[in-house]
What does this fold into?
Amino acid sequence: MPKDYPRSRRVAEQIQRELAEIVRLEMRDPHFSLMTIMDVEVSPDLEHAKVFVTSLNPAAAHAELVKRLNQSAGFLRTQLARRMKLRMVPTLAFSYDESVERGMSLSRLIDEAVAEDRSHHAEDKGEGD
It folds into this structure.
């Protein structure tokens, strides 16, 4: 295995896949609907995992989602232990990933700037006639 693909990264990717499946199939809480696990970072010693989530539901309270996930961390860790072949499953800590919202906001700003530029350009052409 190449050195640029460490075990912690492979474990993180497997945790991400397994958690997505566990949440989809076994969690009945409506707060978890339309939730996506964006990334998982595992410490080099494989003891801790930080899970970044986002919600596709714009009305969802992000703080409440993270709170409920952190409250369910023990259950989720137990389910991971049943699915993964690890001697020790990392403890889970959930955080909200705002990158999707920031990206949409930046995209909207760019679209507005382009539209404004086009309207100014059209006005300038109209004055030149």
